[in-house]
From TrEMBL:
CDD domains: RHOD_YceA (cd01518)
Boundaries of every Rhodanese domain copy: 164-264
PROSITE patterns per UniProt: RHODANESE_3 (PS50206)
Organism: Cardamine amara subsp. amara
Pfam families: FSH1, Rhodanese_C, UPF0176_N
Record Gene3D superfamilies: 3.30.70.100, alpha/beta hydrolase, Rhodanese-like domain
InterPro entries registered for this protein in UniProt: AB_hydrolase_fold, FSH-like_dom, Rhodanese-like_dom, Rhodanese-like_dom_sf, Rhodanese_C, TrhO, TRHO_N
Name assigned to this protein: Rhodanese-like domain-containing protein 6
């Protein structure tokens, strides 16, 4: 799993002596010896001076490499000697040598990166859920067969002879920024564009739009084919009514090779290497500038949304260094109004070896009778150890509480306000500020009486997501964890208002909104549960309460970390390593 690069002299020799090329291929198959396959790629690619990405899992390989055409052909010949690659579609294309170092570096074409991974492409928003069986993937259609189906639909529209063919739909399995510069279009066939930021968002879209696919002949397509394999299997796994799901074998690349004038494909095919995009001989442009809406489809300037870091199209006339851009998805979800004081142009990012991506943004919810500044101080060690992968954002809860004292007289001096997400039924909002004497000694079970205030807190969080989002996940501590769990229980109803991919629950308990409405394992949100393993050590939240909360989440996407401490978030090894491992799945 090393990274290497060719020297400048060798790069110049490649450029001068021979034509350059890019090779793409994947193969889903059982790999009996992953280490042996890693050794093959290290030896073959390094000896042939191939640069790019190689991903190996126990279930197959996914490869995108560039180099001399003759070297790529040698690599193909070597791979074919291994029975694992029998029937593999090796997609080799000649092209210019990488001219833009920035683009080449971002695409991973200035070095060789070989990694062992769990998934060849990250399909599920919950990495721990079992993936669909690849053997159930949709039937492959060759470029000619795919074209023929669309041609037939054009010549023979719907049953009424006028409207579109309602028995056939095209489904684009790519990300929104890819579809904005090229897509299949057929006059009588509906094209479904999920408009997703990343491939792992596709299962959720399929779940929410299953009725658009049920009973139809679904023609799926993507860049080279690999994303359709898992996605088509997922659709077919839904059972009756979803059997007729087909995929374009070899993807758009093979289709354009078969139909160089473009056929039913309009625009350009976005590719994940230094070429950026590949068009047909027509060279038609369907993309447009984000700002002025004029025709434009060049991603080489690498302009990105300042909020979510997705690529956006900004033409030469509109592009200004340092400008803040808001993609159409962020704009759709209320991120269009950017405060003048907000400078996101230097938003922190994390390098994964292939490209540079922003850090995870995690919204942090403090516990009962705490506040944002206090929670930030208490989690300073955690923030420091996660600084390379996550940005923690702290907010106060909406319910302001009275100050409580147990001495004869109220303390003097200024105290920071305290807040809560949930309150007891006798909470008196009119007297919520100032000092009051404690009615009794600390009650470790007081959280069981905090059954009010959820709707106000939920409305408040919607505003926070609109004003300060997007957030990748929510981290909650104690009552904050209970609030986060309650939001997870309503995640499907909150789409578009509170969107996030995971939840981290620390010393949590089951909040009142979930007590009677949720069954064990019914919450599907990917989650990490951190709590003490020794009964009695956490004097605020009993171990069983945290364990019961974890039980409401699906076993397939819930991770549990039990520690030997009390009411804290542990940051020592091995606990911090397990926390990082969970978060890395979402980068």
């Amino acid at each position: 799993m090393g990274t290497s690069s060719c020297g400048d002299g060798e790069k110049q020799r490649i450029e001068d002596e021979e034509q350059y090329g890019v090779l793409l291929y994947y193969k889903y198959t059982s790999v009996p010896d992953v280490d042996e396959l890693v050794s093959f790629y290290e030896s073959s690619c390094n000896s042939l001076c191939l640069l790019g990405r190689v991903r190996i899992s126990p279930h197959g390989v996914n490869v995108t490499v560039g180099g001399k055409l003759t070297a790529l052909e040698e690599h193909i010949a070597a791979a074919k000697l291994n029975i694992l690659f029998e029937g593999t579609d090796f997609k080799l294309a000649s092209c210019h040598h990488p001219l833009n170092d920035k683009v080449a570096q971002e695409c991973g074409f200035t070095s060789l990166s070989i990694r062992v991974v769990e998934e060849l492409v990250t399909f599920s928003p919950c990495p721990l859920l079992k993936s669909p069986e690849i053997s159930n993937a949709g039937k492959h259609l060759s470029a000619a067969e795919f074209h023929s189906v669309l041609q037939s639909a054009t010549e023979h529209p719907g049953r009424d002879g006028k409207s579109e063919n309602k028995e056939l739909v095209l489904l684009d399995a790519r990300n929104l920024y890819e579809t904005r510069i090229g897509k299949f279009e057929s006059e009588n066939v509906e094209t479904l564009d999920p408009e997703i930021r990343q491939y792992s968002d596709l299962p959720t879209w399929i779940d929410q739009n299953a009725e658009k696919l049920k009973g139809k002949n679904v023609l799926m397509y993507c860049t080279g084919g690999i994303r359709c394999e898992m996605a088509s299997a997922y659709i077919r796994s839904k059972g009756a009514g979803f059997e007729n799901t087909f995929q374009l074998y070899g993807g758009i690349q093979r289709y354009l090779e078969q139909f160089p004038s473009g056929g039913f494909f309009k625009g350009k095919n976005f590719v994940f290497d230094h070429r950026i995009s590949v068009g047909s001989s027509k060279e038609d442009i369907i993309g447009s500038c984000l700002l002025c809406n004029n025709t434009f489809d060049d991603y080489s300037p690498r302009c990105r949304c300042s909020f979510c870091r997705m690529l956006v199209l900004v033409c030469n006339h509109c592009r200004v260094k340092g400008d803040i851009y808001v993609c159409e998805l962020c704009n759709k979800h209320g991120k269009g109004e950017v405060p003048l004081s907000l400078d996101l142009s230097n938003q922190p990012s994390v390098s994964n070896g292939d490209d540079t991506r922003r850090k995870l943004r995690i919204l942090c919810l403090h516990g009962f009778r705490q506040n944002a500044s206090g929670f930030k101080g208490r989690t300073g060690s955690l923030a420091k150890k996660l600084k390379n992968i996550a940005e923690l954002v702290f907010i106060d809860a909406p319910h302001e509480l009275q100050f409580i004292y147990q001495t004869a007289t109220p303390p003097s001096g200024v105290c920071n306000k305290k807040f809560a997400w949930l309150v007891s039924p006798d909470f008196d909002k009119s007297s919520e500020t100032g000092w009051t004497v404690a009615q009794c000694q600390f009650d470790p079970l007081q959280y069981q009486n905090q059954t009010e205030g959820f709707e106000k807190s939920l409305t408040y969080l919607k505003a926070i997501f609109a004003e300060k989002g997007p957030f990748d996940g929510i981290l909650g501590f104690s009552q904050g964890a209970a609030m986060a769990a309650a939001v997870c229980g309503k995640q499907e109803q909150l789409v578009g208002e509170i969107d996030f991919r995971f939840c981290v629950s620390c010393s949590g308990f089951t909040p009142w909104p979930l007590l009677e409405k949720e069954e064990k394992g019914s919450i599907k949100c990917p989650s990490l549960h951190i709590f003490g393993s020794q009964p009695g050590k956490d004097r605020q939240i009993v171990t069983q309460a945290s364990s019961d909360l974890a039980g409401l989440f699906d076993d397939g996407c819930a991770t549990i970390i039990e520690h030997d401490f009390g009411h804290i978030i542990p940051t020592k090894s091995p606990y911090i390593d397990e926390i990082k491992a969970f978060l890395y799945q979402f980068i």
